[in-house]
User: Which sequence fits this backbone?
């Protein structure tokens, strides 16, 4: 068993979506100075670290996940001096800082891609990407039948320097995000330099975007199901994702992090966005010499059902924790419908159902062995904003498909901090300054000042749960033992007699054990769990 000084094994990390966290300049877009101003709030909440969404120079076609310069700060978010101030302030408060790094693709405005367009077919500059001749007598058809995850073909044809229609380049997301060719030695070498640039500035690790990507089948053959990625909005094309070669990258990145740790004793963390079909495949990414963690999305995707939750938790504990890593639990992020809304559909009990389930799920997640990631606003119980007008939507999925299905703007609306009307303290500028996405009037109910003042709020549930998690030796890293429970109730024991139980139904149910109550997500009188409630007890089991 590894010792507790491995801080990342049971850490709780708060995801900061920078452009929606707090605006210090009055332009309606959150920035790094705003994140720095919000650090005392996060310290009070009790998180161990923060993960910053991309703030690099970018044309913002996909809000920073189209990177034009991996070693800078986009002026809309600040500059490197402000980043250094943020790092210093976070470390003074004991808060770790993770950066979001995007190694699968860059921006079409990246200097290397512009050089590739100028270089022409067969040039070394084009070898950094996936350029290929088209099919058909005039090359007018894409090189293969793959579709992009955000809709449409995964290939775009370029105009050559002489003005003629030319080759095609691969982009598994949007045309503004060309995929790197990781088989070309210059790409791994460049990203090693990028990692070292930020590690030298003191960062504590990286969240890795599309960590199961990077390598494509060397022959770029046709897919048997070319629209699978677009249909599922997931990386399921085995020719483009989860290739075995990708594990060599994570071994090298792990070695780089270990090199820095050996210098000063500070452990650096690699956490991957790994979307693979099974927990067993997921486990391959967190072997001892690869990533420290990888997000376990199966809990996020599980229906609100006791047996479904039990199944995914059991598989994760068997397959992922069995590697010697710990499971990395997540219920929300910047790409998913918020739990309050997701768990409230269909609304069997009106607006109360989603919040009750989201509170219970939060307490369940914080009781599970391993690490947990909390998306900003989750601690406020923010719902998804589902009625944004078409003319304000910015998600490239909407632009590419014309469909509002599963677009991501609704979970990215700027946070409400105070007051009764927009911008709710989000921006410090003039009253006319508008947040980059409009905030609904009802956000006043969720403002942080109101949440801190109300001991029954989501915020206090999270804060109390985090305090107990830090103070109780039974929580955090370790194992769990399932309890025999009535239908619709999930219960398990952590360590020396700490029990977490969740009622997934609507009717009150006796708790599976008696003991000293510690915390509950809802009414829990006389040892009875009301519908959609989670509770923690200390017992003598």
Assistant:
């Amino acid at each position: 068993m590894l010792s507790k000084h491995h801080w990342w094994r049971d850490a709780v990390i708060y995801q900061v979506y920078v452009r929606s966290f707090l605006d210090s300049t009055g332009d309606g877009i959150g920035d790094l100075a705003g994140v720095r101003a919000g650090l005392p709030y996060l310290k009070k909440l009790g998180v161990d670290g923060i993960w910053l969404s991309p703030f690099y120079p970018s044309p913002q076609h996909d809000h920073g996940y189209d990177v034009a310069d991996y070693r800078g700060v986009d002026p809309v978010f600040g500059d490197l001096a402000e980043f250094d101030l943020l790092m210093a302030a976070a470390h003074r408060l004991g808060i770790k800082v993770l950066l979001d790094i995007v190694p699968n693709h860059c921006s079409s405005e990246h200097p290397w891609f512009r050089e590739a367009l100028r270089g022409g077919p067969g040039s070394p500059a084009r070898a950094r990407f996936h350029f290929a001749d088209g099919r058909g007598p005039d090359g007018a058809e894409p090189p293969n039948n793959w579709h992009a995850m955000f809709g449409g073909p995964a290939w775009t044809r370029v105009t050559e320097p002489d003005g003629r229609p030319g080759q095609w380049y691969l982009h598994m997301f949007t045309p503004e995000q060309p995929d790197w060719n990781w088989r070309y030695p210059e790409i791994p070498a460049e990203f090693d330099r990028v990692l070292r640039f930020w590690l030298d500035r003191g960062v504590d690790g990286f969240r890795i975007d599309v960590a199961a990507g990077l390598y494509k089948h060397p022959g770029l053959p046709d897919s048997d199901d070319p629209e699978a990625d677009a249909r599922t909005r997931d990386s399921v094309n085995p020719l483009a994702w989860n290739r075995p070669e990708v594990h060599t990258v994570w071994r090298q990145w792990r070695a780089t992090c270990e090199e820095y740790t050996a210098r000063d004793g500070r452990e650096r963390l690699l956490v991957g966005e790994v979307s693979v079909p099974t927990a067993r495949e997921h486990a391959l990414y967190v072997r001892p010499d690869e990533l420290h963690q990888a997000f376990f999305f199966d809990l996020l995707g599980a229906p609100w059902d006791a047996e479904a939750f039990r199944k995914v938790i059991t598989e994760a504990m068997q397959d992922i924790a069995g590697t010697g890593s710990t499971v990395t639990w997540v219920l929300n992020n910047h790409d998913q419908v918020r739990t309050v809304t997701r768990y409230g559909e269909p609304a069997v009990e009106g607006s109360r159902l989603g919040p009750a389930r989201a509170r219970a799920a939060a307490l369940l997640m914080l009781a599970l062995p391993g690490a947990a990631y909390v998306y900003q606003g989750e601690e406020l119980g923010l719902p998804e904003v589902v009625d944004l007008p078409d003319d304000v939507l910015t998600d490239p999925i909407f632009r590419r498909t014309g469909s509002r299905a599963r677009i991501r703007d609704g979970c990215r609306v700027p946070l409400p901090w105070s007051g009764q009307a927009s911008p709710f303290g989000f921006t410090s500028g003039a009253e006319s300054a508008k947040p980059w996405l409009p905030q609904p009037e009802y956000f006043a109910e969720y403002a942080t000042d109101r949440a801190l003042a109300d001991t029954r709020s989501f915020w206090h549930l999270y804060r109390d749960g985090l305090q107990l998690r830090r103070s109780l030796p039974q929580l955090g890293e370790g194992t769990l033992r399932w309890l025999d429970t009535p239908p619709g109730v999930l219960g398990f024991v952590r360590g020396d007699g700490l029990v977490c139980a969740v009622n997934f139904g609507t009717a009150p149910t006796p708790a599976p054990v008696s003991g000293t109550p510690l915390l509950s997500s809802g009414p829990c009188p006389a040892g009875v769990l009301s519908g959609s409630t989670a509770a923690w007890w200390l017992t003598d089991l």
Remarks:
- The chain has a mean pLDDT of 93.
- The longest strand covers residues 96-101.
- The CA atoms of residues 302 and 308 lie 6 Å apart.
- Residues 246-264 form the longest helix (19 residues).
